[in-house]
Amino acid sequence: MPPPLRHLMTLADLPPAEINRIIAHAFSLKQRSKPWLTPPDAAAATDRIKNLRLPSQSLFGKTVALLFSKRSTRTRVAAETSAELLGGRALFLGREDIQLGVNESARDTAKVLSGMCQGIFARVGDHSEIEELAKWSDVPVMNALSSLWHPTQILADILTLQENAALFDPTLKEDSIKNEKRAQPKLLDLPPLTVAYVGDSANVLHDMLVSYPRMGHKLRVASPKQYRAPTEVWDRVQQLGCDKNIVWVEDPKEAVEGANVVVTDTWISMGQEAEKEERLRAFKGYQVTEALCKGADPHWKFLHCLPRKPHEVDDEVFYGPRSLVFQEAENRKWTIMAMFDILFGRWALEVEGAQAAADSVKN
């Protein structure tokens, strides 16, 4: 009998233990895969070249349908390249490529795709679209982005922060040095952080709201009152008990006070272009700069899911030493790869299944 069907709509669906397993598995896949992808001359200079092993091949002979109704750079490239590394194929299906929304319903599309593919990775508009796909699909469906949630982005963010744990806790510096010398580096434990989010309450923030507090971190969010989390998101936040570690303010300077990490995102999401001028006025003063963040922890770091616009964060921060954005962007690949391996390759999203997937990389 096949394992029960699981979908991933948001990190609210996962307990912290499962999130931690996914992060650990992503890091393990990254360490296993990097030597294969390193230019030969550079790889030959490392001891790891002697013991090169393929990462998990759980997608061998399998196909993941990339059902994208919105354009993408990081998500598409991460999905296609990670499926290849797992031995499978990612089939890109843009809205101009298939009949969905033209001559065919989401129900019929889900049935057709799940008869030919082993997983559906969907980047949609309204969240109801991916819920409809999951309702009728016979294979796992994973949210690549919807109007409400963006789970793969927050997985990448958590991995990035954990890889840089020593930046937030000086006592970990010696462990970090030892880690760099190991043939197989290990993730260090991330200390409790104060994370400040400055900007619109959109899908990136929503998955932060349901994950960071449950993993021991505090969230301070600055947004105008009219741009705060919708009821359906805040209901999930409260159900999970996350609201106890979330503070909402209007003043961005108040939000970043004492923050270890400062995060922002687009103020104008796809489909909101008609609101551009209104939103630019509402978020005046929210641009992330050194001056805005002078009250933050002296060693604060910056995250942004990309693509970035200068009115959201200035060049000094975005391209400066505080920024982790390009490491964060690369980690979209490794966290998506981990999810493809566990969810599409093994149908094993629970902790035990994730552990089995991680163990397969070590053996």
Automatic annotation (TrEMBL):
Coiled coil: none annotated. It comes from the Eukaryota. One of its GO terms (biological process) is citrulline biosynthetic process. Pfam families: OTCace, OTCace_N. InterPro entries: Asp/Orn_carbamoyltranf_P-bd, Asp/Orn_carbamoylTrfase, Asp/Orn_carbamoylTrfase_sf, Asp_carbamoyltransf_Asp/Orn-bd, Orn/put_carbamltrans. Residues 6-163 form the Aspartate/ornithine carbamoyltransferase carbamoyl-P binding domain. Pathway: Amino-acid biosynthesis; L-arginine biosynthesis; L-arginine from L-ornithine and carbamoyl phosphate: step 1/3. Belongs to the aspartate/ornithine carbamoyltransferase superfamily. OTCase family. This is ornithine carbamoyltransferase.
